[in-house]
Each structure stands twice: as C-alpha cells, then as structure tokens.
Amino acid sequence: MPSIDELEAYAHENHVPIMMKTGIEFILELIRNQAYTRILELGTAIGYSAIRMARISPLIQIDTLENDPERAQVAMKNIAAEHLESQIRLHVMDIAEFQTDQQYDLIFVDAAKAQYPHYMQQFRANLAEGGVFVFDNLNFHGMVEDPSLTENKGTKQMIKKLRRFRETLMTDPNCLTQFYPEVGDGVAVVGLLRK
C-alpha cells in the first residue's frame, strides 16, 4: 500500500502534476467542513487527490476521469492498493465524452487548463444545490500574473485563456467566486446562482 509520501515522490520523479500540498490540504478541509460526499474529479493522473479525498470518509463517492491510459493504469493500481475501488470509479475517457445525470457536491477541475470554461459549461447542470466547483492552477506557476516567465507560444496562449477565465469567474454575477491566490498554485471555489 503506497503511502502519501510515496505517491508524492512517484509524481515528482515521473513529472506527473499533482496538487501542491497547501492546495490538497485546502480541498480536504473544504470537504470535511461541508460534509461533501459526492465528488466529480476531472483529471485523475495517478489517483493522488482522489485517494486523499476518499480517505476522509467511507461515505464519499468519487467519479474521476483520466484520458491517458498509462496514467489511468497507475491510478487503478494505487486505488486498489488502498482498497478504495468501492468509493472511487475511474473512467478512462476524454472528459468531453463523459455524460451523467449524477449531482455532485464538489466538482474538482484539474485537467487541461485551456478547457476550464468548457468544463464548467459541460458540468454546471451536474452541480448539486449548495455544491461548488474547485479549479486548481489558476496562477499557473506565476505565469498568469507574469507571462514573461515563459517563451513557449502554446503556454502563452493557455495563460491568456486562464487569465480570461479567472476574470470571468470574478465578474460573472451568476458565480459566487472565492479566489485563493496563495493556496497551492491558485485555487478558486465557485458556487453558482440558480436562475
């Protein structure tokens, strides 16, 4: 059974992006405080955050999506080693193809950054009353504030989209957004006003 330290070490050694420590602690605290039990995670990677969330309570049920078959295989192994298969359902598929009528207390988004607005649109009907979206990496290693930190054209485009998305979250009257720039790599908690 891999320890949390081992999962973190594996992610570091294999360049697998997982939530920063302050970010994961923040989200676990949110789940505990709000007693959230139904969670959708977009971006499983190696199963690190799903495992951490499921460990909080046996009542927690998680649907998690990963489109990279190799990473999904590692995640399945890690989930099985923790005996959490009854709590975590891993869907190996493109997020855009996932359809469900399930209502979730928490929709945790940590997948393709440029797609954040689409994911929010796609799953807003799946957010339960009183539930929230949580978006990670809204600072993107400081590059959203300071685009000169990268020369990569693709990254610059993605940063522009992230900045626009961040601005939308803060100004859309239908979004109740709390942005925590100092948590992890920039985390937003977003509730939706029902029309």
Estimated structural class:
alpha/beta
How many helices does DSSP assign? Answer: 6
Helix content: 25-40%
Task: Quote the CATH topology.
Answer: Rossmann fold
Low-pLDDT ranges: none
CATH architecture, by name, is 3-Layer(aba) Sandwich
Protein name: Methyltransferase domain-containing protein
Pfam families: Methyltransf_3 (PF01596)
GO biological process, one term: methylation
GO molecular function, one term: O-methyltransferase activity
Describe this structure in words.
- By secondary structure, the chain is of the alpha/beta class.
- Helices cover 36% and strands 22% of the residues.
- The protein contains six helices and seven strands.
- A seven-stranded mixed beta sheet has the order 3-2-1-4-5-7-6, sandwiched between helices.
- β6 and β7 form a beta hairpin.
- The termini are far apart.
Write the layout of secondary structure elements.
Blueprint: H1 4-13, H2 21-34, E1 38-42, H3 48-54, E2 61-66, H4 69-81, E3 88-92, E4 104-109, H5 116-123, E5 127-135, H6 153-171, E6 175-180, E7 187-192
Parallel strand pairs: 1-2, 1-4, 2-3, 4-5
Antiparallel strand pairs: 5-7, 6-7
Compact overview of the structure:
This is Methyltransferase domain-containing protein. The chain has 195 residues and is α/β, with parallel strands linked by helices.
Keywords:
195 residues, alpha/beta, SAM-dependent_MTases_sf, methyltransferase, transferase, S-adenosyl-L-methionine, SAM_O-MeTrfase
